[in-house]
Amino acid sequence: HYAIMASQNNIPAIIIGGPEILPTLPGGVLPGTDQSSNVPADSLERWNQILVELRQNYSGQIFWAIPSDQLESAPDFLNNVDQIYVLFSEPISSVSGASQEDLNNSAAGLLDMQVYPLYEEFQRPIIVGIYYPSVKDASMGCQNPEDACEYFDYSEPVDIEEQAKIYTALLSSCNERAWINGFISRGYFASVTIQD
Description:
Blueprint: H1 2-8, E1 13-17, H2 43-57, E2 61-67, E3 83-88, H3 100-122, E4 126-130, H4 160-175, E5 180-185
């Protein structure tokens, strides 16, 4: 059990959840299909029991990872976690070559419209984990190999400047919001030739 190992090694926090567990939540579907995953009717109670057992075996912080496209259907048991880790890779531009000001405004608006309601409902600290590769038009989104978007074509031209603009927009926006407690850069792949 990972919680016991984390406790024995004085790990201060563990992260559970993420896109991999979406089929286990009410309304869950099998990955890559529209077919129901036949979730048991008591799946939320089962998740609550998992959280109770985690607390019995682990005294550190428990984070729940949730993809940003699932925020409106966040499970009620988020009241029982310590922090919420939002996996964020939303499009922050609808046009190629957006200005820094446009990216800043879009990032701020998305955080306020999509993430703040989650904070408001559960009153848990929010950590934002972003994924935007260093490629042309990364700000236009749907380039995340971890979700249902089409797999990203890494043969696209490297664009470190665009990635820096995206990070600037999101870091600034997160820093301006007291209800956001942290920022994580996700998706660094050392074996890929992209220069993240």
